[in-house]
Amino acid sequence: MAIALNLTVKVKQDPATLAQLDQLAAAFPTMVQPLMDQALAASERVHFARVLVIDRTYLQVLTEFDGDPLEYTTFFLEKLGPVFKAIFALVENAPPWEELQDPNRFFEYTSSKNLRALGDSADPKRGYLFSALGEKTVKELKALTAAPAARAA
Questions:
Q1: What is the three-class DSSP state of 19?
Q2: Which of 52, 6, 4 is nearest to 28 (CA)?
C-alpha cells in the first residue's frame, strides 16, 4: 500500500537564498529531474513524485511510495543526497547538511516536516490517501503491466 510524503519546508527569504531558489528552479528540468528519474525508477517503490515551490515561500517534496518510511528516506539520502543538500540549503532553520547525512537524523528531520493530510488512515500520523489501485506495490503493478512476452520469460 502506498504511503504519502508531504514534506513541506519554509524557504529563507533573503535575496541570496531566493536567487539560489531561482537557480534550482531553472536547473531542475535538465539537471535535477534526470537524477530523480533515474533513482526513483531504479527504486521500484515510488508511485509518484513531484517538487513544488509555493509563492517562493514554501517548497514541497510530495511522493507516494511503498515500504518502510525509514528505508525510503535512507534511499533518498543515499541516491539523491546532492539534490536534498541543495534543497535544504534553502530552508529556514534547517540543520547543517553534515548532521542530515546521518540516516536517522535525516529521517527525523524530514518526518518533522511531513504534513499530515486531512482525514483518517491506518497510520494516524499521515492522514487520508486514496488509491484507485488498492494495496498494489510498484513492483506488482509493473509485473501486471509487463508485455506478455516479458512475463512468459
A1: helix
A2: 52
